[in-house]
Every structure is written in C-alpha cells, then in structure tokens.
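Subject: complex prediction, re-run

Hi both,

The earlier run crashed halfway through, so I resubmitted it with identical inputs.
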Amino acid sequence: MRRRYQATIASLFLVLILVALAYAGLGTTRAASLLLSGLTLAALYFLLAAGLSLIFGLMDVLNFAHGVLFMIGAYIGYNTLGNPRLLFNTLPLLMALIAGTLAGMAYGWPLRRWETRTRQALAAAVAAGSDRKKTTATLLSRLSPSVVLALAAVALAVWGVRGFPLNLLVAFEPTATGGAIPTAAAQEPLSLMAIRLLKIAGAGILLGPLMVRETGTGRRPVTLRHVLTAIGLAGIGVLILLGRDPLEGFVLSLSVDLRFLLALVAGATVGGLLGALIERTLIRPFYGRPVTQIVLTLGLMFMGMELVKSVWGREGHPPMAMPSFFAQSCRSENLVVWLAERCSSVNVLGRAFPTYRLFIIAIGILILAAVGLLLRYSRLGMIIRAGVQDSDMVEALGINVRRVFTLVFALGSALAALGGVVAAPFVGVYPEMGGTFQLQAFIAVVIGGMGSYPGTAVGALLLGLARAFGDALVTSGITLPWAAQAFQASPALARASTVLIMAIVLLVRPAGIFGQKE
Amino acid sequence: MANRYLLEVQDIHTFIGQFHILQGVSLTVPEGSITAVLGRNGAGKTTTLKSILGLTPPRSGQVLFAGDAIHGRQAYEIAALGIGYVPEHRAVFTQLTVRENLRIAERKRGDLERKADFIFSLFPDLKRLYRLPGGHLSGGQQQMLSIARALVPDNRLLLIDEPSEGLAPILIQELMEAIRRLSAKVTVVLVEQNFQMASRLADRYVIIDDGRSVHSGPMPELLADEAVIRRYLGATM
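This time it finished cleanly. Structure:
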C-alpha cells in the first residue's frame, strides 16, 4: 500500500512538472489547449490500454489483436451510422451462426463424450500393446471427429457467404459536398438470403459440438435455456431479414445523434462478441504458452487487417459524421452556451478547442470511473483482482475462472471497439488505425505497471500529454524559462517522446509506476 | 455402508509435464476424521491434494467424494461439491481486504453472514483486521485467513497443506486448537511436516514416499511403530 502511495505521488509529480514547464514556456492559453489535446489522446489510449492491461493481468496474454478490434469497432460504428443496410443484411447471418452453434451444443455433448471415451479406450488398448489399435489411435488423435467437424463447418460457412455482395450493400453514395444520394437496392432477394441463412446455421450446428468441453463424466452441459436462446435468436434474425427495408428506413429517419448512439452500442457489442469468440476458440487452448499466444494474436492482427481491407477497401474513410452537438461551425463562449448552440468548438481561455474532443475526454473519464467501480465494488471485480494474483486459487474456491477469462476478454475487446467508434470522427477510419494506437496503448500499460489498472490510467495520461506537448515542441518550439531562444525539436523526437518516457520510467522503476515486483 | 468414506482415492497416477509424480496413491478418509498425510519433502503430498481437487488432474485412478467419481472434472466443479482448499504458502489475496478474501469464497449469498460467528470464534483476530488488505497481515494471520476462507461456504472436506510452515511455536499451538475445533464440523485432510503437530491432531494417517502411498491406518498404530516413523519420516518421538 505504501508503494502504491509513493507511485501515485511520483506520477502526479511527473505530470505537474510537465504541465508547469509547458505553462512557463508556452503561456497559459496554449498550454491549456495542449493539455486538453493531450487528454484527448490519453482518453483514446486508455480505452485500448484498459482492456490490454486487464487481459494481461488476469490471463497473462499479450493480445496483439487488440488494435484490430479497435479498428473493427470504428468500421462497425461508421457503417451503423451511415449504412444500416449492411447491418440488417449481415446481422441475421451472425444470429443464424450463433443459434446454430447453440443447437449444435445440444446434440454435440453425446458426440464429444463418445469421442473422449473412444480415445480413452484406445489409449488403454495401446498401453496393453495392441499394434493395430495403436495405428487407429494415432489416426484418431490426428483426424478426430472434432477436426472433421471444424473443417466441414468452415467449408459450409464459406459456401454460405460465397458471392455475398458486401461491397454493394451501401445505402448512400457520398457526394462531393458531403451530402448523400440513396443508392438503388443492391440487396439480395429474400429467397437467396434464406438459403444463405440455412447454410450458415448448418455451419453453426457443426461447430456446436466443439464448444462443448470434452467431458468424461457424462453430465449434460446444455440446458433448456440454450435451446430457447437458439430459437429466440433465430426468430429475431428472420424478423430482421424480413423487415430489413422498413428497418433501414426507420434508422435513416432517426437523428444523427441517435444513430451515433446506435453506432457506439453496435461497435462495442460486435467488439465484445468478437473478443469472446477469439478467447473461446483461439486463446483458450493455449493458456500458459506465451510464445504460441504472441504468434497467434500477431497472426490475428494481420488477418483482421486484411479481412477488413477485403471488405471495405484499402483506402479507408474520411472522419465519421459527428453528432449534431458538435457539428455547427461556430464557436461557443463556454460549455453552457454550447449546449444551446451546439458549436463544433468552444472558447478555452481565448483559444478555440473542438468540442468533440471534449466529448472523447468525457467518455475516457466515464469508462475509467465505470471500470474502476466495477473492479472495486462488484463481485466480478473482486474475482478479477484476486485472479490477477492467483487464478488457480480462485478456481479452487469453486469459481469458474475460465468463464471470467472469457468475460474479461470480451469486456476489454468491447472497450477497444468502443474506443474505435469514438475515435472515428476524430482520426477517420482506416485499416492501419489500430496499429498506431495499439503501440501507444502497450507503452501505456508497460509504463503503468503490467496489469495494474490505476497504472494503466496514469500511463495513458503521461503518454497523451507527452504526445501533445511533443508535437508542440516540433511545430512551434518552446521557450524554457532559463533559455533565451525557443527550443525546437525535430519531428523524430516528438515521435520518440513516448518511447523516451517509457525508457526513463523503466530505468527508475523496472516494474512500471504501479508495478509489483515479481 | 456405501459411503463409509467421505473421500476415497484409488491408485492415482499424476504427471506434471513429463514427470511421473504420483505413482499410485490410495487413501481413505472417513467422515468426521482428521487424516494426516505424512512423508518427506518432495514425496508428493501437495500433488496428492492438488490431484484430489483437480488442479493437477490424475491421469489414471479414481477419486470418489461422497461416493461419486469426481476425477476428470474441472477444479471449480470439484471445489463446488464441498471441498475447501488451504494451499501451502497460504495464497491469501494480498490486494483484497480480509472481508473480500472471505466474501469471494461465498457460493451462495449470505454464506459469510451465516458463518461469521463461527469463523470469528475460531480466529478472533480476523474481526479486528476485517478492513485491512490481506498483504498487511502477518504470516500467522494470513494462515488463519486462509483457513477461514475455506470455512465460508458449506464445505464437507478441507484439504489443508502445511499450515504450520514458517510459524512461531505459540502460533502453531493456536492453529492446532482451531483445526481441532473446526474438525467437529468438517472432515480434514492435513498435509504436515511437523510430525509432533500432526500426530497430536490426526486420528488417521497415510505416508507417501516417492509418489506412492506406503502405509496408512489409525494414528495410534503409527505412534507404536518406531521403525516406520524412522524409515519414512526421519523423525523420532
């Protein structure tokens, strides 16, 4: 506890020095707007770093695919806001997949039990020294029913989505002046979609057994709830598909503010679901094997980027449309007036500052507080904090720690995707956006102390400020109180500033500011 | 007499990586008893406990709890059947307060409230330390917290690993008294290096040597058998 106390003091001190230097050299007004710029970046870094830190702390997984989730979140948000047609044509497919998987779990458990028992019987036979059985056992372990099912599922899924006109599912063509022309219907007829739906659901049914843990005890792991959820999901999927035209009309008739809210929810939800899927299928088999995990998540990063490029193109999109609260091109005197005027910028000590960036800062603070409260006061938070220290002991208390792993992975991914949506109107939407932010987020996590939540927040704050003030050093220089001439840094130094901070912090405290010594 | 024993371990073999750690451990634990698992360092005592709980699942052999086969299940499922674990080195959650350390062990809402009186009667110190982080506690206090944590849910069996390790003699006395008192409510399997302590607490024993269970029976029989004690435990009375 004393170490933590010292760490807080030290990091506050560091920030204060930075700010004081800036004030002395830049004058109050510029320093204030730089401070806010720094906070904006810090908020975005934090949204990524929070998940990274939680996932590393609890599961010891370095998730290099985190930035991809950020980027995918941005794309999902962008399309929800401007192109709901895509959403209503793809959501039913996703629901069919999940419903099929749930249904597959229901019939899959006897199959998995049979597989486990056969394997055990063969192992026993091998131990008894039967050569013929040995060959069969080797063959079965190489080409088990699970592998066959997985391959068949992938094949069926690919068949199901083959030729799906994803690129044509555009509700609008943007015009040069920023307006939009509704495009002619490029949707597939319902009959064709129904066939796709069936194929995808079939792929899910094949995948289902793989989701059931191998169990030798023969207890039924699937409940009535699973089956009811499957039926419900399938129903909703079909309803969405049938009502896709009126639904599209409805969403487009909504105000841009509501659609932005929808974009936030859709981005975070898709991010969370993707995260859960990644953890369940790809990460879970490799806990305790860090090298495999790193290669795996790195591979996911490249795959995700190429996948997005193949769907949405390499060029990316201009910044996403902002809610109307930040869209009027004017400058409000203060935040109270801004609420009425909805100007795109606000007066901060005589300089204009974009109001949307204040919104980003607010989101960052909101998430910081929400996750902090979750960790401190909820049972889940208690389990996470305990699991960071000793997940085996948590399991020995009778808690299904694996499920908590999945949940935390999903939560972290959802936060990253949310960050992507929030960043989209600020930096635009492009396939490489994840990489840049991910690198900074990693540095923030390392500076703060791997796996420490307050440390991550402080790390993100330091990096954001360093980045903003570093950029200022490059563009206009800084007059230090003791120097006659303004000091102007090279652009390379600004880019290196964050890494420089990491080097300094790690030299002083090798485990990071809030890190615990191993 | 189907459930004569609360716990029955039948010839389990456990591997850790390539190493064949347990090469045939069997033991039986009658309900209401304290069974001491004895043996030299590295004999496989801790691995035996972990194998029962499924933290290092046995590759072959059977573990029966209240007559049901539990081997092959996930550790959290096994624990939830009513087995509490007090690992060596205590494994108190240092970042969590004493209260949270107890609260996290709840399996039903209100477990802690129902057990609080019993727990504080065993370990009055914990009441005073209730709001402190586990990391601030002394070794003895952490050991008490670790045992208390295993008492929060309705456990029928407690697996206690080396509770006296690194504690002052006066604390060991206190701890023994607490274990004796709690054994009125739950069955205990106790791994213990301190033969003095184990022999005074336990009513049954099993000796593990080189990954095999080599002797077992009622404790008085062991105390009468100087040769076995000298051969396997290197201790004298």
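Residues 84-128 of chain A form the longest helix (45 residues).

- K.
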